[in-house]
Amino acid sequence: MCPMDLNGPDAQTVLVKLWGNPPRSADLLGMLMPDGASVSPLTEKSGAVVVTYEPDGYVSDKDAEKYVVIEGIVRLRPKI
Fold first, then answer.
1. pLDDT in tens, 32-68
2. Domains of the chain: which residue ranges?
């Protein structure tokens, strides 16, 4: 199962037109969701991770070394 990566406009379409959510602000960068061949985005079993950007604060390189973001996302993918 490979996840689908959607850009901001495509993610907005899924959230608003397909799932009936209110429109999001311009901070929507995209979405990660399971491959449509395994779980259709139109079923109740579907789900997604919404990717946004908040310009809140600063993380120094030293502090950033403590976080392994990609590994965390990879661990979540089988649960999506």
1. 887 765 677 787 877 888 888 877 777 788 877 776 6
2. 4-79
